[in-house]
Write a structure and sequence with these properties.
The complex is a heterodimer of chains A (128) and B (400). By secondary structure, chain A is of the alpha/beta class. Chain A has a single domain, classed as 3-Layer(aba) Sandwich (Rossmann fold), CATH 3.40.50.2300. Chain A has 5 helices and 5 strands, in the order βαβαβαβαβα. A 5-stranded parallel sheet of chain A has the order 2-1-3-4-5, sandwiched between helices. In chain A, strand 1, helix 1 and strand 2 form a beta-alpha-beta unit. In chain A, helix 1 packs across helix 5 and helix 2 packs parallel to helix 3. Chain B has 11 helices and 13 strands. In chain B, helix 5 runs antiparallel to helix 6, helix 6 runs parallel beside helix 11 and helix 7 packs across helix 9. The chains are: A alpha/beta (128), B alpha+beta (400).
Chain lengths: 128, 400
């Protein structure tokens, strides 16, 4: 089973990135690359080579689903697990997001204390 | 041959026609019924609902004619839309405007034509309801007035279509607004509640005297989130946007889960909860949205804990009578004063004795329960005896 080590997190809100960074690197113990836009993620993802992609949905420029679609066009990220972290949590919205090939949708506000363990358990279920 | 002139209000006319989104759509029974009636009343083999765009007349309904459209320059309806009244050509071969028209000299060999303009708001004429015969003939005044009346029914159908389009647009705007509000509220709350939770998690590093402040901030952050969630839930329900995913589920399991979820409340109020189900039933199956029904029962149980006496008892009971399951939640608290019973399902209304802050609620829970149950063709009911007990209950048909 491949272990989960490197995560890329894309969110345009600085404060949320700071909370998530603490949650994933201090409470969790992941190697993390933070990006403030889909565009930035697309320029950095190949060099970083993450195991998992975390994406906000509503962002200026290219939004989360479009960012994921473009990432999927890069051969080696065709099947890299992706999770949306979003305030779009009405059932139909969650259904739409899952249809982009995400393995989970985490609602905002998320609990930073349990964020890492939730992501790890989704990963374990996928790998296991 | 003479083609119909271009109306003075042609740009507005075309804009209105486009706004209907009707061109090149499938046939519809309502229009087909009207052309059938027009043909029968006027005793003609052909009747059309003809709509005129820049270059053609397109038929929304074409009784007795295979063609779906013809060029506008040949269209009799191009003349008819310029008239106030029903436009009649009794014999095309004797009319210089039409005798060389390809629709007269060739198929469908029109000899007689009568068309009533379809007049929308602001005198915009987008086409006609017309009847056609392959032989010359006359039309009676009764037939003319019937044709005009039927044309008004076509217009009524077109107006319905416009209203429906407007309603869909409004519906979409409501969806987008709710989604946007949800996003705009949740984004700052993610940073606020997230950073508070991290501070709480690391609170051993916090000076002892400041910890109560930390607790206040976390508790109120959670309360604020509950209010936002309830308001968004309710707004969505009131907009008729409650999304139900009905499945077959066990009501006993729902009740058990609600009791589990409320354990912290029971500990707080030091009360005991008891589940009473029929001995013979290991499962009571109903058809409902699992998440929504769970929300209803959990809310009723937490309300019971909230209003229960310290060391009191809460009974969650399920009974089945005549294939209808009734789930009830009873507490033996202060009951609800008669004067306050009318306020129960009002938004943001909380009964006086909750204002001691024991378990602050949003005042929306029962309203949300009612919406959810109504969407399941059920309703929430209650019986209360002041200073004795209160019982909330709802019924759902048992799935055999």
């Amino acid at each position: 089973m491949q272990s989960l080590e490197k995560i890329i997190y894309v969110d345009d809100q600085l404060d949320i990135r700071l909370v998530a960074e603490y949650a994933l690197t201090n409470i969790g113990n992941f190697d993390l690359l933070m990006c403030e836009s889909g565009e930035e993620a697309l320029t950095k993802i190949e060099e970083y080579d993450p195991d998992l992609i975390l994406l906000d949905v509503m962002m200026p420029g290219i939004d989360g689903p479009e960012t994921l679609s473009r990432i999927r066009r890069i051969a080696r990220f065709k099947t890299t697990p992706a999770i949306f972290i979003t305030a779009k949590i009405f059932p139909s919205e969650v259904h739409d997001l899952m249809s982009y090939g995400a393995i989970d949708v985490i609602a905002k506000p998320f609990d930073p204390v349990t964020l890492s363990s939730r992501i790890q358990s989704v990963w374990d279920e996928l790998e296991g | 041959m003479k083609s119909g002139s271009i109306p003075e209000n042609e740009p507005e006319r075309l804009a209105k026609l486009r706004s209907l989104d009707i061109l090149d759509t499938l046939e519809e029974e309502a229009y087909d019924d009207l052309t059938l009636l027009a043909a029968q009343i006027c005793d003609t083999p052909i009747a059309l609902v003809s709509l005129i765009d820049e270059s053609r007349q397109w038929f929304k309904s074409h009784h007795g004619l295979d063609a779906q459209e013809t060029p506008r320059e040949y269209a009799f309806c191009g003349h008819a839309i310029l008239q106030e009244d029903v436009f009649v050509v009794e014999d095309t071969e004797k009319d210089d405007r039409f005798k060389n028209n390809p629709l007269v000299t060739g198929s469908p060999n029109i000899r007689f034509y009568a068309g009533a303009p379809l007049v929308l708001e602001n005198d915009i004429r987008i086409g006609t309801l017309c009847v056609i015969d392959r032989r010359s003939r006359e039309i009676t005044e009764k037939q003319k007035s019937s044709l005009a009346a039927l044309s008004r029914q076509v217009v009524a159908q077109l107006n319905l279509r416009l209203r429906l389009k407007e309603m869909h647009a409004l519906d979409k705007a409501k969806d987008e607004f709710l989604s946007m509000v949800s996003h705009e509220l949740r984004t700052p709350m993610t940073s606020l509640i997230g950073s508070l939770k991290i501070l709480e998690y690391q609170s051993e590093n916090l000076e002892q005297s400041l910890r109560p402040m930390m607790d206040i901030a976390v508790r109120n952050g959670d309360h604020l989130l509950n209010i936002v969630n309830d308001i968004l839930d309710l707004a969505k329900m009131e907009a008729g946007k409650l999304e139900l995913n009905r499945v077959t589920l066990d009501l006993i399991e729902v009740a058990k889960t609600s009791l589990d979820l409320n354990q912290p409340y029971f500990l707080d109020c030091e009360c005991q909860a008891e589940l009473r189900v029929p001995e013979k039933d290991s499962a009571i199956l109903v058809q409902a949205d699992k998440k929504q029904l769970q929300q209803v029962v959990t809310n009723l149980v937490s309300n019971a804990a909230k209003y229960s006496q310290r060391n009191g008892k809460i009974i969650v009971s399920i009974e089945v009578v005549n294939n209808v399951a009734e789930l009830s939640v009873t507490d033996f608290g202060e009951g609800i004063a008669i004067a306050e019973q009318g306020k129960l399902f009002r938004k943001f209304q909380q009964l006086d004795h909750t204002k001691n802050g024991k378990h602050p609620g949003t005042g929306l829970g029962l309203n949300i329960c009612k919406h959810i149950l109504n969407a399941h063709y059920s309703d929430i009911e209650f019986e209360s005896i002041p200073n004795e007990q209160t019982r909330f209950f709802f019924k759902l048909p048992v799935k055999s």
